Amino acid sequence: MNTTPRDLQPHAVSPVEGYLRTLLSELADHHDGEVADYIPELAKADPNDLAAVVVTVDGKIYSAGNFDQTFTIQSVSKPFMFGYALQNHGIDRVLRKVGVEPTGDPFNSITLDDMNNRPFNPMVNAGAIAMSELLVGETHAEREKSQLEFFSRFAGRDLTIDEKVYQSESDTGHRNRAIAYMMLNAGMIDGPTEEVLDLYFRQCSILVSTKDLAVMAGTLAAHGRNPLTDTRVISPGDVRDVLSVMATCGMYDYAGQWMFDVGLPAKSGVSGGIIAVLPGQFGIAVYSPRLDSVGNSVRGIELCKRFTKDFGLHAYADRSDTRAVVRRVYHGDAVTSNRVRSKREADLLKEMGGTIRVIEAQGPLHFGTTERLIRQANMSDSECETLLIDFRRVAYADRGARMLLKQFVNAQAERGTKIVFVEAQNNPNLGTFLQAFEPEVLSGQLSFVSHFDDALEEAENACLEKHGVHHAEEKLSLAELDLFQGLDAAEIAALEPLILTFEFKEGETILTAGDVGQVIFVVARGSVGIHLGTSEDLSHRIAGIGPGQSFGEMALLDGGLRSANAFAETSVLAYGFVVDEVRKLAEKHPRILEMILANIVRSLSNRLRAANDVIFALK
């Protein structure tokens, strides 16, 4: 079989893999159960083997333990053989051969449904043997080849048969022979009986790894499309029928309790394998040879219980399309905060702002959506120093989402990346979200910032500081102020008598929209926020003004009313110039007004260009 996997490249340890490794470590001391010995070759398995693999519907593989160790597929093959029969013969013919009702009898019971004289379902041995007769081919060899190729398409690679296990199955399979001859007598199979049994024994002896089983389960989760090779194996309708029978019959007489505890369609095998499927999201496979009294892996069941409980993965829980969780991704060189910057600062952020990365999340956060969100976050290159995740559009974050995010934060802290959760405090849907991350906040691994622009501005300041541009505490020299760039010493001296000095306390109103514009302000120390709307509403912050930057300049251009509100975000020291006084001074020193107007126009032009860049980046 020729297939080309899309993504088999090595990957860094993710929160999902970290979780799986921790879980396997905790389960390693569980020694309940016994290795199957009624087939002699199976008794040779190492009882301490343990592995788990998750494969998402878009081909991401998360693995832990000895996931490449091979073993025979045994009864985990049954749902796939049922899918083969459905694909090649249709539901009507298949249901003449086998039912879909669960049975409380053991998987190898020599019984048929009294009403229809057929096996109860395709997950017990009788039903699986009946399905083996439906293999397509003129000869026994062709049917065997058809079976192996079909299973290989599910696994995304060429599979083989363990001849020793096959021979052991054949030599000791007397109970299965009794089942087959009973069905021959009942007209459920036509024979030759030994050839049908041979195909069944070979089916159970196919060699797989835990990774192979996870890919096969992932193919069912992806509605019949192999997530690695992108090959359509069976139709979505056939997958629906397979998963339905897995849900009710896949774990034998433990099936009801399994669906209550775990909540995912599943199938187990006596070699120690279990697969489970969350449609539309992922398939999981677990391998541990120690079995309970009904033939299910003891540690495999416990792992699946823990996994689905911790991440809220029950099939009947509400789910959404995981692809929509990331609304937008951009960097700090394309989108900047509303802080008004000097040319030097703006140029440096244009050059180095790519070290700031922003991800906007949206919709519900559960295991599937959070895994995709984290995967997108992990795509940050090695130069990412600050990662902002915007939570303002998140509908909810369940327990599984919080667990994954906590592990993600810890992993990023080890890499030295600063993580900031933004707007979570303002989102009424997130409830106790902040409290869940108190340890990470206290340890300095994570910070919460209420307003996005504040978080972005803080990240920019850190970037500027790292590259030698320090945020000035105070600018007392007029010559250093952007508004007066280009003026000579004599012109500066002429301006100095006009200076008015203002001090504002934190939170104090400086300007109010609608007031007459009479004074131009220049910040000497502190920070001023410019806001639209009413003076009581500070949510619409359109600019932040720091030392050396001016505000209220429009008064010099049009002499009109104030168009926005200005508030002291910290204690502020500002210089003020009365517009009429500047105009009078210009009668003797016309160049002063010319340079001030030119500097205002340049500042407004830079702000407009920056706004255009943001609009382009976010469109």
Give structural notes.
With 619 residues, the chain is of the alpha+beta class. Helix content is 41%, strand content 17%. It is built from 21 helices and 20 strands. A hairpin with a 4-residue loop joins strand 5 and strand 6. The two termini are 45 Å apart. The N terminus is likely disordered.
| Whole-number total of structural domains | 3
Mean pLDDT metric:
87
CATH architectural designation of the largest domain: 3-Layer(aba) Sandwich
* Helix coverage percent: 40-55%
Low-confidence stretches: 1-11
Q: Strand order within the widest sheet?
A: 2-1-7-6-5
Write down the CATH topology of the largest domain. Answer: Beta-lactamase
What would you report as the Rg, rounded to the nearest angstrom?
A: 34 Å
Give keywords.
5-stranded antiparallel β-sheet; alpha+beta; 21 helices; Jelly Rolls; 20 strands; 619 residues; rod-shaped; single chain; 3 domains; 5-stranded mixed β-sheet; Beta-lactamase; disordered N terminus; Transcription Regulator spoIIAA
